[in-house]
């Protein structure tokens, strides 16, 4: 290729790339309304955006990966935590995490109830934007991950007793899949590592703790055994409340109530089999 041919090739390549970029840009703008659910931008959502900026939330958190990386990304936070949890958390973050132990530095913003509701509405709108499943992993508020995590999200570094063996039709292995793939994923709020409490308590040693709960007479639900207790907790999270201000408020559990309709009875049985195996 001589100089003239190289020059023509460069010019043609630039033109083709420019046309492609222009076409993709126009196509993106054509779809923005649908992808961002623009018709769901209510006055409350707009006010919530103003609360977000006024309190400089972006100085610590990210949305769509943009912002500071000091605290977790909040793109899908309403789907992972729910409005009840977020309301209580925003009222007083110190009730959820001990700064000396968890190194949680979220300041108390003294937001009004109206501001809290508006901010949650804004974050809920954000969570429904079609952003190609970003962020790619569940939010883990504390250090609950382990080395060796594979693509399926299985905690390969978790204690051996917490890792189910087998595959195929094994209900324990199928239950672990439900634990990691339900919407929202159970693993986004519960760890299977001893002592690692996130938005929900650690599920390590659940069998032993449940036996102690039944024996102590503090259980308030209707289950008669461990599997029944797990099924009840999934279907009716408020049937028995685990003590602690970070797990419930005003007699209502922060755990989502949607699993009863989103999971089949078979999936709940598989989940019970897996969680029962966490000795």
TrEMBL record:
Keywords: Electron transport, Heme, Iron, Metal-binding, Transport. Residues 43-127, 170-279 form the Cytochrome c domain. InterPro entries: Cyt_c-like_dom, Cyt_c-like_dom_sf, Cytochrome_c550/c551-like. It comes from the Bacteria. This is Cytochrome c. Residues 150-164 have a biased composition (Low complexity). PROSITE patterns: CYTC. Gene3D superfamilies: Cytochrome c-like domain (1.10.760.10). Pfam families: Cytochrom_C (PF00034). Residues 150-170 are annotated as: Disordered.
